[in-house]
Amino acid sequence: MKRHHHTQHQANESRINRQIAIQDMFYINPQYQGQLESASVIVFDDVMTSGATLNEIARILKDNGVSRVINWVLLRTLRPSQRSEHV
Q: Whole-model pTM?
C-alpha cells in the first residue's frame, strides 16, 4: 500500500474533516494487487485518533480483494470531551 502525502497535519481536525481529507489518500501498488485476493491483512498503527485512516486503509484493501483486515494500534488518543475531563 502506498500513500499520497498532504502537507497539512490532520491531528487537530474534526472527525468529519479527517474523514474527508483521508479519502483516496491510499492506493495499492499494482505490482502486488494480485497477492491480496482473499488475504487476511494486519495493519499496524502507532496512534489512532479518529480511526479515519484505519477505516480508509481497510476500505482500499477490501476494494482490492482482501477478505479480512485486522487493525493493531499501540496508542489511542482521547476524544475531545474526554480530554477536558482529565485536565
A: 0.71
